[in-house]
Amino acid sequence: MSANRLMAAGLSAGTALAIGGSVGSLTGAGTTTTDAAIIATDIVRLTGASNSGARLQPGTPGDEVFILNESANTIKIYPPSGGTPNAGSADAAISLTTLKPAQVKYITATAVMINTGAV
Hints:
Blueprint: H1 3-8, H2 13-20, E1 23-27, E2 37-38, E3 43-47, E4 53-55, E5 64-69, E6 75-78, E7 84-85, E8 94-96, E9 101-106, E10 111-115
Parallel strand pairs: 1-3, 2-4, 3-5, 4-6, 7-10
Antiparallel strand pairs: 5-9, 6-8, 9-10
């Protein structure tokens, strides 16, 4: 539910934003998990150079992050430091191709499912 609808139902702006998520823009950086840009919002409009990266922060099981690659390049999405994407190797990247969305679901604080199909 959107923050606007939650506020219309009587919740404070701070509470509504916490429930409804925050939107941010981010430019991918680096080429490894250690120098990738840090994702700090729940909904991310992502741009960047080819094979630049963005890294998720640790979360809580059940948390979700939505990412939209708005660039003309493939960008790497990294799990939280030491984490595993899609039950794969630690710190491995998932490639998010041009103009595609991704949905991230936290399984543990650092293990995530990254769906780059239909979201």
